[in-house]
Amino acid sequence: xxxxxxxxxxxxxxxxxxxxxxxxxxxxxxxxxxxxxxxxxxxxxxxxxxxxxxxxxxxxxxxxxxxxxxxxxxxxxxxxxxxxxxxxxxxxxxxxxxxxxxxxxxxxxxxxxxxxxxxxxxxxxxxxxxxxxxxxxxxxxxxxxxxxxxxxxxxxxxxxxxxxxxxxxxxxxxxxxxxxxxxxxxxxxxxxxxxxxxxxxxxxxxxxxxxxxxxxxxxxxxxxxxxxxxxxxxxxxxxxxxxxxxxxxxxxxxxxxxxxxxxxxxxxxxxxx
Amino acid sequence: xxxxxxxxxxxxxxxxxxxxxxxxxxxxxxxxxxxxxxxxxxxxxxxxxxxxxxxxxxxxxxxxxxxxxxxxxxxxxxxxxxxxxxxxxxxxxxxxxxxxxxxxxxxxxxxxxxxxxxxxxxxxxxxxxxxxxxxxxxxxxxxxxxxxxxxxxxxxxxxxxxxxxxxxxxxxxxxxxxxxxxxxxxxxxxxxxxxxxxxxxxxxxxxxxxxxxxxxxxxxxxxxxxxxxxxxxxxxxxxxxxxxxxxxxxxxxxxxxxxxxxxxxxxxxxxxxxxxxxxxxxxxxxxxxxxxxxxxxxxxxxxxxxxxxxxxxxxxxxxxxxxxxxxxxxxxxxxxxxxxxxxxxxxxxxxxxxxxxxxxxxxxxxxxxxxxxxxxxxxxxxxxxxxxxxxxxxxxxxxxxxxxxxxxxxxxxxxxxxxxxxxxxxxxxxxxxxxxxxxxxxxxxxxxxxxxxxxxxxxxxxxxxxxxxxxxxxxxxxxxxxxxxxxxxxxxxxxxxxxxxxxxxxxxxxxxxxxxxxxxxxxxxxxxxxxxxxxxxxxxxxxxxxxxxxxxxxxxxxxxxxxxxxxxxxxxxxxxxxxxxxxxxxxx
Lengths: 273, 588
Hints:
A: mainly alpha; 2 domains; 10 helices; elongated; B: alpha+beta; Tumour Suppressor Smad4; seven-stranded mixed sheet; about 15% strand; rod-shaped
């Protein structure tokens, strides 16, 4: 049976992360450094080392996930740990900073890291929620099959409209030729097209007052409605799949930028020790 | 008109297939409709798209209303078409051919623009996967990471290398250098403390070597001779030779002082002094509000020897007693009903009538007889000699002074005291016989001795001072006495810092019980509980949070330098700061 990555191995990595967080918070509360808490106390350096190590290890997931069948630890373990320890990192790095903020590389690193972590959480939410919606929406059909069905309907629509008046034919032709699915990222994320030629063709056929071609009109309308329904589902499909991917455009670039800032942070802190 | 319609289909392997149809009629209609002579089954063609007609042997084509018709590539309504001309009807091309005897018109019809595969086209025009958002994910990654590295690391580093090591220790040359140093500001982990701001953009002033922690040397170049906390010989654990300046003084922690104020820093040792050392007489303290010994004022024990004592606590029995050599009851002077002032009548004295803060407002100016006492306590010794007073502060001169006064009177006469011999009361200027001369000289000696040892001589001094006999005798043979020089404590708590200047809104008597003090041995130092009524420890929530360093100094001014290593000429560094500041100020 499928086991959610969140409850993987009976929350093993959640427990790890909670222990790490609890120990960090506990020591932070007990520790009373001279002056304000900051990254330069012994606890500050310790938390900094843990946070830095975590960042590198978390980023390594990007490489590890592309290597199938390598290593003794399964990719599920990696991902589950990536999620929980990544969340713990937000807390550890905050404690490392001692809640000090400024207009400097150290806070830039913090912001980049937090954007990475938050985008990761958003991605996790998408991955927990959308696959089920995707399956429900597809009703057993794959995206390709749905597109194939639309193409079939297009042929029918053209065939039927061929014998009808020019205006109806033009609307039907436009529906078959200009209807698009997806498009730009923005269009994909919107999940609908208010200028969809198919919808316009349906409206046209529905509102047509001409009494000619009664049977053809009904056949045409049936197919246009069926096509519209397919389009709605396939657009939702595209929307969900786009959401499942789009957060990575934040998560991945920011994670690498975080590593770049980490290098600067560490080097400059010790350059001017 | 008899026409031949020739439908041409090109095969995928080359070659053509031809299907001929014969049409009769005046017109050759072209369209999607079944009734058309040339039937073109494609949605891009109108039901009735065009028609061909033959006029006087010439072939013409005319478009139906709204139809798209092109003859030899040009859009037209009606046009003559020659053999070999090309007529475009939607995706079809119709070409007239040479007529034969059997047919008036021969038209070759070919679909030259097939509708194509629907699925293929639908997929082609629909983007259903993200491969890029403006840039690809990889490009975004490179862009963002490069921007971060360039902006926060490479550019500041190059700028840093360009300026190189500062030409002098405190690179404060105005203009260009500070400007060039600006990019490294992004590395600054926090605001520089207020005192160090003026060279804050010259990182190398303190961070002398890359990847090496700031050394004490950097601090000592200005703070040369900063003192010890305790005498290293007696308290070796408190010499802190193993610690660096920056282990206590943390820079880049904000726009404030970098002097540590944590109570705990002091309490680590002072919490239990007995356990720490047997050599110190200090009590234990860890929090001003909760755990701090009662004040032990340092008072004069023996004014002649300048011996001091700090063994007794305020409020203890016996409490601290000042042995200043003075007699001064505060209560009599501060009587609510007032005291009699010869010039002003009855006045109610206030503390400020005698006690004036010194320039800094920290302590009070020393009391002076001339300024504070003389107004009421004039040292007149003879009611018949109203213009002369004993000289204050110079007891050794008093004997001669008084004798001179009476010698002069004896010679001059006119001394009106009833009990004086008649010769003294003679008209001034009357000449004396030798016997009378001897008589008045004897009187002067006797009178001097009587006055000096009487109520208005020694008795007058003893109102405020202690007197004692010396071994000497004066000209007339009577014993010479003198006044014990008083010593008043100027600072009760020399190891603590207190300023009256910040307590001016509190009436003096809130802290000092002067109104009920009837002896100068009373030490009017308030108890710690008086301070604690307003001041609490570091974490006090209901009182002024006050830490150790609010009253005490870590580096004690009475001790020697904490670090023995000699720094570079601190004076030179300071002079340079001054010169740079000046040249900066002179910049237009």
